Amino acid sequence: MVLLASTVTIPLERPTARHRLLVFHHACGAAANYYRWGASFPDDVEVWLIELPGRGRSLGARAIDTLPELIDFLRALRPLLPRTYSVFGHSMGALIAYCFACDMAQQGHPPVWLGASGADAPFYPHRHAHRDGMPVHSRTDAQIVDYVVSLGGTPREVVEHDALRAMLLKLAKADFRVVERFFPLPSATALPCPVTVFSGRDDTLLSPAGQRDWLRASHHTVDFREFDGGHFFLLDDPAAVQHAIGQALAQAGQRDTDDCAIP
Question: In Å, what is the CA distance from 81 to each residue of 4, 8, 19, 54, 89?
Fold first, then answer.
């Protein structure tokens, strides 16, 4: 395992890989949720797990709860990025991955591919709709815990442990504040790279219109891939999702090679 500061974890170092895949975790998640992904791709792909403060190796740090501060924090990754890299994120991670890609594009170093999983488009105007009218980050502690558990990915036994429950609440209040206070974005920025949108067929957090709105995320192709499962389909059946990501990376790599060959 290779660690770059406390933000980037490389589970399996592959120095000769031609491609780096940056993976952004979901709300209340951490790099550990995706650690096994490091060995799940072909040898020419090296996985970088991007971990936000307040969890993992930075457990004691304050969890960032505003989007501008979060983008500024992630901008420190710029000197580490190779020429060719891609970004992938799930749920909140998809929103952050998109914003990071836009920021890097503005600085002249865009990714060659974006994978967005389990999220309506970050600029979809109806993202704020809540069934009970109350944002998650403003609910009582018990309501927040119940909501996070209802999404899947967090066993009820975890939140029955006092220390783990306290950590979950800290992350939930910060992460959901970012999602609920700063999205939807005021406008769409079309990226100079292809985008693939991943979703679970039974994910009740998504809407057909919100998924279609990802078409505004790129000047290039936007593909849609659907899988069995709910919101955490990619953790329930990671092999199928990883295979689809691998295919998309191969296509993006070929496109990047073709572009470089143009005189």
Answer: 12, 11, 11, 23, 17
